[in-house]
Amino acid sequence: MDPVTLSLVVSLGLLVLLLGAGVHIGAALALVGIIGSYVFLGSWTAGLNLLLLHAVDISSSYTMMVIPLFILMGGIASASGITKDLFNLFYRSFGRLPGGVAVATVGTCAGMAAITGSSVATSAAMSRIALPELRRFAYDERMSTGAIATGGTLSIMIPPSITLVLYAIFAQQSVGKMLIAGVLPGMLLALGYILLIVIRCRINPRLGPPGPRFSFRERVELLPGVLPFLLVIAAVIAGILFGIWTPVESAAVAVLLVTAISVLQGRLGLRQFVDACREAVNMSASVFIVVIGSMVFSGFLALNGFSDMIADSILAMNLTPFALLLLLVAIYIVLGMFMEVSSLLALTIPLVMPIVLTVGWNPIWFGVVVVSLMEVAAVTPPVGLNLYAVKASVPSISLKTIYVGSVQFWLINILLILVLFAFPDIALILPNMQ
Description:
The protein has 434 residues and is mostly helical. Helix content is 77%, strand content 0%.
Protein backbone atom coordinates (compact mmCIF):
# COMPACT_ATOMS: atom_id res chain seq x y z
CA MET A 1 0.00 0.00 0.00
CA ASP A 2 1.45 3.38 -1.03
CA PRO A 3 2.16 6.01 1.68
CA VAL A 4 -0.74 8.26 0.62
CA THR A 5 -3.37 5.52 0.89
CA LEU A 6 -1.86 4.05 4.05
CA SER A 7 -1.73 7.41 5.83
CA LEU A 8 -5.35 8.11 4.87
CA VAL A 9 -6.61 4.72 6.05
CA VAL A 10 -4.74 4.98 9.36
CA SER A 11 -5.66 8.62 10.05
CA LEU A 12 -9.35 8.42 9.11
CA GLY A 13 -9.76 5.10 10.95
CA LEU A 14 -8.13 6.60 14.04
CA LEU A 15 -10.32 9.70 13.75
CA VAL A 16 -13.48 7.60 13.76
CA LEU A 17 -12.27 5.68 16.82
CA LEU A 18 -11.32 8.83 18.74
CA LEU A 19 -14.59 10.61 17.99
CA GLY A 20 -16.53 7.48 18.88
CA ALA A 21 -14.67 7.35 22.19
CA GLY A 22 -15.71 10.91 22.97
CA VAL A 23 -12.29 12.54 22.61
CA HIS A 24 -12.42 16.33 22.22
CA ILE A 25 -12.58 17.12 18.50
CA GLY A 26 -9.59 19.48 18.66
CA ALA A 27 -7.35 16.94 20.37
CA ALA A 28 -8.55 14.19 18.03
CA LEU A 29 -7.80 16.21 14.89
CA ALA A 30 -4.35 17.21 16.15
CA LEU A 31 -3.43 13.62 17.07
CA VAL A 32 -4.70 12.28 13.75
CA GLY A 33 -2.75 14.94 11.86
CA ILE A 34 0.49 14.08 13.70
CA ILE A 35 0.14 10.30 13.29
CA GLY A 36 -1.00 10.64 9.66
CA SER A 37 2.06 12.77 8.88
CA TYR A 38 4.29 10.15 10.53
CA VAL A 39 2.78 7.32 8.47
CA PHE A 40 3.13 9.36 5.28
CA LEU A 41 6.70 10.62 5.84
CA GLY A 42 8.12 8.08 8.28
CA SER A 43 9.09 10.87 10.68
CA TRP A 44 7.46 12.65 13.63
CA THR A 45 9.10 15.96 12.78
CA ALA A 46 6.54 17.32 10.31
CA GLY A 47 3.49 16.54 12.46
CA LEU A 48 5.02 17.91 15.66
CA ASN A 49 6.21 21.02 13.83
CA LEU A 50 2.66 21.56 12.56
CA LEU A 51 1.36 21.33 16.11
CA LEU A 52 3.98 23.70 17.52
CA LEU A 53 3.62 26.19 14.68
CA HIS A 54 -0.17 26.41 14.85
CA ALA A 55 -0.34 26.34 18.66
CA VAL A 56 1.97 29.37 18.86
CA ASP A 57 0.35 31.11 15.89
CA ILE A 58 -3.25 30.67 17.05
CA SER A 59 -2.67 31.40 20.74
CA SER A 60 -0.84 34.64 19.91
CA SER A 61 -3.07 35.70 17.01
CA TYR A 62 -4.56 39.18 17.15
CA THR A 63 -7.54 38.03 15.07
CA MET A 64 -8.35 35.19 17.47
CA MET A 65 -8.85 37.70 20.30
CA VAL A 66 -12.30 38.40 18.88
CA ILE A 67 -13.54 35.01 20.11
CA PRO A 68 -13.01 35.43 23.89
CA LEU A 69 -14.18 39.04 23.68
CA PHE A 70 -17.47 38.18 21.97
CA ILE A 71 -18.00 35.25 24.34
CA LEU A 72 -17.39 37.55 27.32
CA MET A 73 -19.79 40.15 25.93
CA GLY A 74 -22.47 37.50 25.57
CA GLY A 75 -21.88 36.18 29.07
CA ILE A 76 -22.18 39.65 30.62
CA ALA A 77 -25.33 40.43 28.62
CA SER A 78 -26.94 37.14 29.65
CA ALA A 79 -26.04 37.70 33.30
CA SER A 80 -27.69 41.12 33.15
CA GLY A 81 -31.11 39.55 32.55
CA ILE A 82 -31.69 41.34 29.24
CA THR A 83 -33.43 38.28 27.76
CA LYS A 84 -36.61 38.69 29.79
CA ASP A 85 -36.91 42.41 29.06
CA LEU A 86 -36.36 41.80 25.37
CA PHE A 87 -39.05 39.12 25.28
CA ASN A 88 -41.52 41.38 27.08
CA LEU A 89 -40.85 44.13 24.53
CA PHE A 90 -41.50 41.84 21.55
CA TYR A 91 -44.44 40.20 23.34
CA ARG A 92 -46.17 43.53 23.89
CA SER A 93 -45.35 44.72 20.35
CA PHE A 94 -46.28 41.64 18.27
CA GLY A 95 -48.26 39.37 20.59
CA ARG A 96 -51.57 40.39 19.01
CA LEU A 97 -50.62 38.82 15.63
CA PRO A 98 -51.70 35.27 14.70
CA GLY A 99 -49.12 33.16 16.50
CA GLY A 100 -47.96 36.40 18.11
CA VAL A 101 -46.34 34.88 21.18
CA ALA A 102 -44.27 32.56 18.97
CA VAL A 103 -43.43 35.56 16.77
CA ALA A 104 -42.23 37.38 19.89
CA THR A 105 -40.14 34.32 20.75
CA VAL A 106 -38.36 34.35 17.38
CA GLY A 107 -37.91 38.14 17.57
CA THR A 108 -36.34 37.79 21.01
CA CYS A 109 -34.05 35.04 19.75
CA ALA A 110 -32.89 37.36 16.93
CA GLY A 111 -32.26 40.13 19.43
CA MET A 112 -30.35 37.80 21.75
CA ALA A 113 -28.35 36.52 18.77
CA ALA A 114 -27.09 40.05 18.23
CA ILE A 115 -26.14 40.35 21.90
CA THR A 116 -24.90 36.93 23.07
CA GLY A 117 -23.92 34.90 19.99
CA SER A 118 -24.75 31.59 21.75
CA SER A 119 -27.48 29.45 20.20
CA VAL A 120 -27.68 26.90 23.01
CA ALA A 121 -27.83 29.56 25.72
CA THR A 122 -30.53 31.45 23.80
CA SER A 123 -32.70 28.34 23.37
CA ALA A 124 -32.27 27.38 27.02
CA ALA A 125 -33.16 30.87 28.24
CA MET A 126 -36.18 31.15 25.95
CA SER A 127 -37.45 27.75 27.13
CA ARG A 128 -37.72 29.17 30.63
CA ILE A 129 -39.05 32.60 29.65
CA ALA A 130 -41.28 32.10 26.58
CA LEU A 131 -42.67 28.58 27.02
CA PRO A 132 -44.86 29.42 30.05
CA GLU A 133 -46.54 32.17 27.99
CA LEU A 134 -46.90 29.90 24.98
CA ARG A 135 -48.56 27.29 27.16
CA ARG A 136 -50.80 29.87 28.81
CA PHE A 137 -52.32 30.64 25.42
CA ALA A 138 -52.56 26.93 24.53
CA TYR A 139 -50.06 27.01 21.67
CA ASP A 140 -49.31 23.77 19.87
CA GLU A 141 -46.27 22.28 21.63
CA ARG A 142 -44.52 21.42 18.38
CA MET A 143 -44.95 24.99 17.18
CA SER A 144 -43.75 26.35 20.53
CA THR A 145 -40.67 24.19 21.00
CA GLY A 146 -39.74 24.39 17.32
CA ALA A 147 -39.79 28.20 17.47
CA ILE A 148 -37.59 28.16 20.57
CA ALA A 149 -35.06 25.57 19.35
CA THR A 150 -34.76 26.92 15.81
CA GLY A 151 -35.00 30.57 16.85
CA GLY A 152 -31.96 29.97 19.03
CA THR A 153 -29.96 28.98 15.96
CA LEU A 154 -30.15 32.57 14.71
CA SER A 155 -27.16 33.13 17.00
CA ILE A 156 -25.16 31.00 14.55
CA MET A 157 -25.84 33.41 11.67
CA ILE A 158 -26.41 36.87 13.15
CA PRO A 159 -23.18 38.59 14.32
CA PRO A 160 -21.43 38.49 16.72
CA SER A 161 -21.46 34.81 15.73
CA ILE A 162 -18.55 32.64 16.86
CA THR A 163 -19.47 30.20 14.07
CA LEU A 164 -18.91 32.90 11.43
CA VAL A 165 -15.55 33.71 13.02
CA LEU A 166 -14.54 30.02 13.02
CA TYR A 167 -15.49 29.62 9.37
CA ALA A 168 -13.44 32.71 8.49
CA ILE A 169 -10.42 31.28 10.30
CA PHE A 170 -10.73 27.77 8.84
CA ALA A 171 -11.33 29.14 5.32
CA GLN A 172 -8.65 31.85 5.73
CA GLN A 173 -11.10 34.67 4.99
CA SER A 174 -11.59 38.11 6.51
CA VAL A 175 -13.32 37.88 9.90
CA GLY A 176 -14.85 41.33 9.44
CA LYS A 177 -16.31 40.53 6.01
CA MET A 178 -17.65 37.20 7.27
CA LEU A 179 -19.38 38.80 10.24
CA ILE A 180 -20.97 41.49 8.07
CA ALA A 181 -22.06 38.88 5.51
CA GLY A 182 -24.32 37.26 8.11
CA VAL A 183 -26.42 40.36 8.78
CA LEU A 184 -28.89 40.33 5.87
CA PRO A 185 -29.24 36.51 5.63
CA GLY A 186 -29.79 36.40 9.40
CA MET A 187 -32.53 39.01 9.16
CA LEU A 188 -34.12 37.11 6.25
CA LEU A 189 -34.08 33.89 8.27
CA ALA A 190 -35.77 35.55 11.24
CA LEU A 191 -38.36 37.08 8.89
CA GLY A 192 -38.88 33.69 7.25
CA TYR A 193 -39.49 32.00 10.60
CA ILE A 194 -41.95 34.75 11.57
CA LEU A 195 -43.87 34.56 8.27
CA LEU A 196 -44.10 30.78 8.61
CA ILE A 197 -45.63 31.16 12.08
CA VAL A 198 -48.09 33.86 11.02
CA ILE A 199 -49.23 32.01 7.88
CA ARG A 200 -49.67 28.67 9.64
CA CYS A 201 -51.51 30.22 12.56
CA ARG A 202 -53.77 32.24 10.26
CA ILE A 203 -54.68 29.04 8.42
CA ASN A 204 -55.11 27.08 11.65
CA PRO A 205 -55.66 29.43 14.64
CA ARG A 206 -55.53 26.51 17.07
CA LEU A 207 -51.76 26.29 16.49
CA GLY A 208 -51.23 29.72 18.03
CA PRO A 209 -54.00 32.17 18.84
CA PRO A 210 -53.25 35.90 19.05
CA GLY A 211 -52.11 37.24 22.39
CA PRO A 212 -53.41 40.32 24.22
CA ARG A 213 -53.19 43.87 22.95
CA PHE A 214 -51.04 46.41 24.79
CA SER A 215 -51.20 50.16 24.65
CA PHE A 216 -48.46 52.20 23.03
CA ARG A 217 -47.32 53.39 26.45
CA GLU A 218 -47.06 49.82 27.76
CA ARG A 219 -44.84 48.92 24.83
CA VAL A 220 -42.61 52.00 24.91
CA GLU A 221 -41.95 51.87 28.66
CA LEU A 222 -39.71 48.82 28.16
CA LEU A 223 -37.41 50.51 25.64
CA PRO A 224 -35.04 52.22 28.12
CA GLY A 225 -33.90 48.88 29.52
CA VAL A 226 -33.34 47.26 26.13
CA LEU A 227 -32.39 49.99 23.68
CA PRO A 228 -28.85 50.67 24.99
CA PHE A 229 -27.83 47.04 24.40
CA LEU A 230 -29.23 47.06 20.86
CA LEU A 231 -27.50 50.36 20.10
CA VAL A 232 -24.18 48.85 21.18
CA ILE A 233 -24.62 45.98 18.71
CA ALA A 234 -25.68 48.39 15.95
CA ALA A 235 -22.56 50.43 16.63
CA VAL A 236 -20.37 47.30 16.50
CA ILE A 237 -21.79 46.20 13.13
CA ALA A 238 -21.70 49.72 11.67
CA GLY A 239 -18.13 50.21 12.93
CA ILE A 240 -16.93 47.06 11.17
CA LEU A 241 -18.94 47.82 8.03
CA PHE A 242 -17.56 51.33 7.58
CA GLY A 243 -14.03 50.50 8.70
CA ILE A 244 -14.15 52.59 11.86
CA TRP A 245 -12.58 49.73 13.81
CA THR A 246 -11.47 46.15 13.35
CA PRO A 247 -13.58 43.21 14.60
CA VAL A 248 -11.25 42.86 17.60
CA GLU A 249 -11.52 46.55 18.48
CA SER A 250 -15.31 46.45 18.05
CA ALA A 251 -15.54 43.43 20.35
CA ALA A 252 -13.44 45.16 23.01
CA VAL A 253 -15.59 48.30 22.80
CA ALA A 254 -18.75 46.16 23.01
CA VAL A 255 -17.51 44.41 26.15
CA LEU A 256 -16.78 47.73 27.86
CA LEU A 257 -20.11 49.28 26.86
CA VAL A 258 -22.24 46.25 27.74
CA THR A 259 -20.49 46.00 31.11
CA ALA A 260 -20.99 49.72 31.79
CA ILE A 261 -24.67 49.61 30.79
CA SER A 262 -25.31 46.53 32.93
CA VAL A 263 -23.64 48.10 35.97
CA LEU A 264 -25.37 51.47 35.54
CA GLN A 265 -28.76 49.76 35.23
CA GLY A 266 -28.04 47.74 38.38
CA ARG A 267 -28.18 44.47 36.48
CA LEU A 268 -24.63 43.22 37.04
CA GLY A 269 -22.81 42.47 40.28
CA LEU A 270 -19.22 41.41 40.89
CA ARG A 271 -20.12 37.73 41.21
CA GLN A 272 -21.98 37.67 37.88
CA PHE A 273 -19.08 39.45 36.20
CA VAL A 274 -16.53 36.97 37.55
CA ASP A 275 -18.73 34.03 36.47
CA ALA A 276 -19.03 35.51 32.97
CA CYS A 277 -15.23 35.89 32.77
CA ARG A 278 -14.69 32.32 33.96
CA GLU A 279 -17.14 30.96 31.39
CA ALA A 280 -15.48 33.01 28.64
CA VAL A 281 -12.06 31.56 29.52
CA ASN A 282 -13.37 27.97 29.51
CA MET A 283 -15.28 28.33 26.24
CA SER A 284 -12.45 30.20 24.53
CA ALA A 285 -9.90 27.53 25.50
CA SER A 286 -12.16 24.86 24.02
CA VAL A 287 -12.58 26.83 20.78
CA PHE A 288 -8.83 27.48 20.51
CA ILE A 289 -8.11 23.75 20.84
CA VAL A 290 -10.56 23.04 18.03
CA VAL A 291 -8.90 25.63 15.79
CA ILE A 292 -5.36 24.36 16.51
CA GLY A 293 -6.42 20.76 15.91
CA SER A 294 -8.16 21.68 12.67
CA MET A 295 -5.07 23.50 11.41
CA VAL A 296 -2.85 20.49 12.14
CA PHE A 297 -5.33 18.16 10.43
CA SER A 298 -5.68 20.40 7.35
CA GLY A 299 -1.87 20.65 7.17
CA PHE A 300 -1.67 16.85 7.03
CA LEU A 301 -4.37 16.68 4.34
CA ALA A 302 -2.48 19.23 2.24
CA LEU A 303 0.78 17.33 2.83
CA ASN A 304 -0.45 14.01 1.44
CA GLY A 305 -2.67 15.56 -1.23
CA PHE A 306 -6.00 14.23 0.07
CA SER A 307 -7.74 17.62 -0.16
CA ASP A 308 -6.85 17.95 -3.83
CA MET A 309 -7.84 14.34 -4.48
CA ILE A 310 -11.32 14.89 -2.99
CA ALA A 311 -11.75 18.08 -4.98
CA ASP A 312 -10.65 16.40 -8.21
CA SER A 313 -12.96 13.44 -7.63
CA ILE A 314 -16.04 15.62 -7.10
CA LEU A 315 -15.16 17.93 -10.00
CA ALA A 316 -14.68 14.88 -12.25
CA MET A 317 -18.40 14.15 -11.77
CA ASN A 318 -19.04 17.19 -14.03
CA LEU A 319 -21.96 18.39 -11.94
CA THR A 320 -23.63 21.68 -12.67
CA PRO A 321 -23.04 24.33 -9.99
CA PHE A 322 -26.60 23.85 -8.70
CA ALA A 323 -26.24 20.05 -8.55
CA LEU A 324 -22.91 20.45 -6.75
CA LEU A 325 -24.57 22.76 -4.23
CA LEU A 326 -27.35 20.21 -3.62
CA LEU A 327 -24.74 17.47 -3.14
CA LEU A 328 -22.85 19.53 -0.54
CA VAL A 329 -26.11 20.45 1.21
CA ALA A 330 -27.04 16.76 1.45
CA ILE A 331 -23.59 15.86 2.80
CA TYR A 332 -23.73 18.58 5.45
CA ILE A 333 -27.24 17.61 6.54
CA VAL A 334 -26.15 13.98 7.01
CA LEU A 335 -22.93 14.91 8.82
CA GLY A 336 -24.89 17.39 10.95
CA MET A 337 -26.81 14.47 12.42
CA PHE A 338 -23.64 13.16 14.04
CA MET A 339 -21.42 16.17 14.75
CA GLU A 340 -21.85 19.45 16.58
CA VAL A 341 -21.28 22.71 14.75
CA SER A 342 -17.66 23.59 15.56
CA SER A 343 -16.52 19.99 15.03
CA LEU A 344 -18.29 19.82 11.68
CA LEU A 345 -16.67 23.03 10.49
CA ALA A 346 -13.23 21.96 11.69
CA LEU A 347 -13.47 18.63 9.89
CA THR A 348 -15.04 19.68 6.59
CA ILE A 349 -13.83 23.15 5.65
CA PRO A 350 -10.24 22.01 4.87
CA LEU A 351 -11.75 19.41 2.50
CA VAL A 352 -14.42 21.58 0.89
CA MET A 353 -12.50 24.82 0.30
CA PRO A 354 -10.43 23.48 -2.66
CA ILE A 355 -13.74 22.57 -4.36
CA VAL A 356 -15.21 26.01 -3.65
CA LEU A 357 -12.16 27.82 -5.03
CA THR A 358 -11.92 25.59 -8.11
CA VAL A 359 -15.59 26.07 -8.98
CA GLY A 360 -15.16 29.81 -8.56
CA TRP A 361 -17.67 30.37 -5.76
CA ASN A 362 -17.05 33.33 -3.50
CA PRO A 363 -15.76 31.92 -0.16
CA ILE A 364 -17.68 34.56 1.81
CA TRP A 365 -20.92 33.62 0.05
CA PHE A 366 -20.23 29.93 0.60
CA GLY A 367 -19.57 30.64 4.27
CA VAL A 368 -23.09 31.99 4.67
CA VAL A 369 -24.44 28.84 2.96
CA VAL A 370 -22.45 26.59 5.30
CA VAL A 371 -23.46 28.55 8.38
CA SER A 372 -27.12 28.21 7.38
CA LEU A 373 -26.53 24.45 7.27
CA MET A 374 -24.90 24.64 10.70
CA GLU A 375 -28.21 26.02 11.96
CA VAL A 376 -29.90 22.92 10.58
CA ALA A 377 -27.29 20.72 12.28
CA ALA A 378 -28.01 22.41 15.62
CA VAL A 379 -31.61 21.10 15.55
CA THR A 380 -30.98 17.69 13.92
CA PRO A 381 -30.84 14.61 16.18
CA PRO A 382 -29.08 12.73 17.56
CA VAL A 383 -26.49 15.47 18.22
CA GLY A 384 -28.52 18.69 17.73
CA LEU A 385 -27.53 20.62 20.85
CA ASN A 386 -30.42 23.10 20.68
CA LEU A 387 -32.91 20.24 20.91
CA TYR A 388 -31.28 19.06 24.12
CA ALA A 389 -31.11 22.61 25.49
CA VAL A 390 -34.91 22.85 25.21
CA LYS A 391 -35.38 19.31 26.50
CA ALA A 392 -33.16 19.95 29.53
CA SER A 393 -35.13 23.10 30.36
CA VAL A 394 -38.52 21.38 29.89
CA PRO A 395 -38.09 17.65 30.66
CA SER A 396 -41.83 16.98 30.32
CA ILE A 397 -41.71 17.52 26.53
CA SER A 398 -40.43 14.65 24.39
CA LEU A 399 -37.41 15.06 22.14
CA LYS A 400 -39.54 13.87 19.22
CA THR A 401 -41.99 16.74 19.74
CA ILE A 402 -39.16 19.30 19.75
CA TYR A 403 -37.58 17.83 16.61
CA VAL A 404 -40.83 17.58 14.63
CA GLY A 405 -41.56 21.18 15.57
CA SER A 406 -38.10 22.24 14.37
CA VAL A 407 -38.25 20.59 10.93
CA GLN A 408 -40.82 23.04 9.60
CA PHE A 409 -38.51 25.92 10.54
CA TRP A 410 -35.22 24.58 9.19
CA LEU A 411 -36.87 24.13 5.82
CA ILE A 412 -36.67 27.93 5.75
CA ASN A 413 -32.88 27.54 5.97
CA ILE A 414 -32.88 25.37 2.86
CA LEU A 415 -35.08 27.92 1.10
CA LEU A 416 -32.60 30.66 2.09
CA ILE A 417 -29.75 28.67 0.51
CA LEU A 418 -31.69 28.41 -2.75
CA VAL A 419 -32.39 32.16 -2.64
CA LEU A 420 -28.70 32.86 -1.98
CA PHE A 421 -27.76 30.69 -4.95
CA ALA A 422 -30.08 32.73 -7.17
CA PHE A 423 -29.18 36.09 -5.60
CA PRO A 424 -25.65 35.84 -4.09
CA ASP A 425 -25.49 39.62 -3.56
CA ILE A 426 -27.74 39.19 -0.51
CA ALA A 427 -24.70 37.82 1.30
CA LEU A 428 -22.09 39.92 -0.49
CA ILE A 429 -23.52 43.43 -0.74
CA LEU A 430 -22.46 44.49 2.78
CA PRO A 431 -18.97 42.87 2.72
CA ASN A 432 -18.32 44.51 -0.66
CA MET A 433 -19.03 47.92 0.91
CA GLN A 434 -15.97 47.62 3.14
